[in-house]
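notes to self, project folder thing:

trying the whole complex as one job this time. last attempt i did each chain seperately and stitching them together was a nightmare. two parts in total, labels are on each line so i dont mix them up again. if this works i'll redo the older ones the same way
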Amino acid sequence: MKKILLTLALLSPTLIFASSSTELEGGFKMGPAIILLTILVLFVTVGIFFKAKDTNDFFAAGRKISKIGSGMAIASNWMSAASFLGMAALMYGSGYHGLAYVIGWTGGYVLLLILMAGQIRKYGKYTAADFIGDRYYSKPLRIAGAIVAILISIAYCVGQFGGIGLLFKWILGVPYALAVVIGGSVVLTYTLISGMLGVTKNMQIQYVIIIISFLIPLFLLTYKFDYFWLLPQAGYGSIVSDIVTGIPAPEVPGLINSFGNDFAIMPSPEYAMPWDPSSGQTFFQFMAISFSLMVGTAGLPHVIQRFYVVPKVRDARWSVVWGLFFICILYWSAPVYSALGTILSSSPEIGKLSKDAIVVYTAQLGNIHPLIVGLLAAGGVSAAFSTVSGLLVAGASAFSHDLYVKVINPSCSPEKQLRMARLATILMTIIVSLIALLKLALIGQLVAVAFSLAGCTIFPLFLLGIWWSGSNRKGATWGLIVGGGISLIAITYFIAGKFNLALPAHEFINYWLGAWYFAWIGAPLAILTNILVSKSTEKTPLEIRKFLVEKVHS
Amino acid sequence: MENNDKTNNEEYNISFFKPTTKVAKFNRNLIVTLVLIWAISIFGFQILLKIVEKQTPEKAYTEYKSVRDNLKNGNADNKDKQVFVQSLLSVLGKITVAEKDKEILNAAVNRVVFELVPETDKAGFIAKLDNFKSQKTSDPNYPKLKKELADIAGKYIGVKAYTLKAKLLVSELAFAKSQEPDFDKTGLVMKKYLIHNQSFITDFKFIGFPFHYFYTAVFLLILFVGLCLYYCIAIDVNMKKMGIVEE
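result (full assembly):
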């Protein structure tokens, strides 16, 4: 009897969910909701067990994390809603052009490793603003650095909250706005409970959940539709080629999607051909996006901050290798969802789908077991959560540590600093939720704005600050003004465009300084300005140069 | 004293391009090499793709071009019209087609198919179509009606009932709602969706992939991990060789 009850209990979510398997949105989905709840309870429990005891724990996890653990945390921190949902969405919508995001978000790690990781760890500062204020011996620059770090965290979080809203909407069957509020409240609660130590531990668990939930449906889908399923990441070439040449409908019904449509597609070379006219994207935009995302990667405060949590300099370097490898597992897989999703959704009966949810829709259209689709959606939520928590900690650190303690109230107690960090976390969550409700762009594109901002502001300061002792306060200030100015212009035009306000030369600016790629020119100009001004003004103080020689490059 | 200060000032300088120690020189050379490999592999390849690309039309575009003038001038026979509709359906079947472009193509498809339906069949066909359009996709009769209509409509445009084009045509037809076709705009839309940037690199297949796709989506990521791995190993080996122990 007990066995029967247990079986029924386990199957009931499946049965409830199965009834709506051919509705891509539908109402409340019990199975996925239970999976999501279980995962969230696990996160909060881990957060409580590894709760931050003091500010050292909160900001840098007490430097107790191993290099593989840190690599997993880097990957989990990195694998956001933009990676989990957004990347497949970009390729689904614009084919080969979407690969600019794939290489942009991975290629930047090479720069991060060889130009930054070890040296940042040697410099030994907690936050990006700490580094900037110290290296450029300037309080105003510290404040500017902290403000930029907060802005980057907010811009980055907006895309994540969009993803959280989308998945909560799908699982709970509630309107998008309510889903954003519910998801935002949950992520806020557990970030406040755990701090970075809990977050880092959670990130390791989250990585495992994210990657398993992403891979299982992929193996099942490729197996089901008769593609090379043993290693779909390398074997999906025939899916791409099938899309290019087209799959004719069979005379006798064969493979079908969950709507009963044939597994068939018209020849669609635009899916794989570079900068195809139908995508509306050009060669320049492909290059500019790749470059901007790469320099942005090496300038993101919450990514740079991860190097403070490893015990040794060598660990900082190796954690990047592990991190990138773990990240690539997902990045090799995302295009497979996009390719299969393209075929499975090609029938007109499916209608226009929300691109950002194509990963989940692909699994549904492929008739994967509802509970596995639920696990996939829960994995997407985990991906967004892991990144948001890291971003909120980075933003909170910038506020409480760099602005409050270092500028406003240097004599405050550690308890008060922790309280300020928590207050900043709450404020940021509210701001981000409000912006996310506006649905300004695709998740991946919103996140790319944060990358360009980081590439124009933080990246030049770190690059020159580490590798050229000649870069001084005035050079850094003017470099930041130029980089920040370009960012301001690009973002202002983007927002004005969203509200149908035509500013002067808006077409020209929107193309050459697109919101997702303005760092292509902003970063080089900020670097050039920094160099020119530094060369024509006073030398960097001896103590800074001495520190660079003896501590950072020794 | 002044001289000592001057010496100190000059000693404590870091410049990536002017390394002063053996370790710094090693680091500089390693970083420059890796950045060059990184940049050429990423941007060099895309530039190569751009240089060798040729605007290549799909078969559907060539067919469309062969009949479009006849359609525009009103000299088209039924065979021309069938080829015309089939080529337009090749675009309407793409998932990337934008709504405004779809409307332009739909208008042309509806007009030409209406002309292809024999006068004696018109009333019956329209009635069947209206009945089908009133059904929801979840209605049990929907697949049966769709198949019946695809069978009839397929004959008008010269394709078999089970083909994608026949099924697609049924979904696209809506005579009552159809607008006046604009053949000039239709031509622009066809060009936009049926001409692609192709070359020997995109045509060459590697483990099933178009080569450029494999290179960008799979190989570059392997290369990035490889570059990072090489860097870490090279630094570790060099540190060991020089007897340097990091904190």
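what i see at first glance: Strands of chain B lie at 54-57, 195-198, 205-206, 209-210.
need to look closer tmrw
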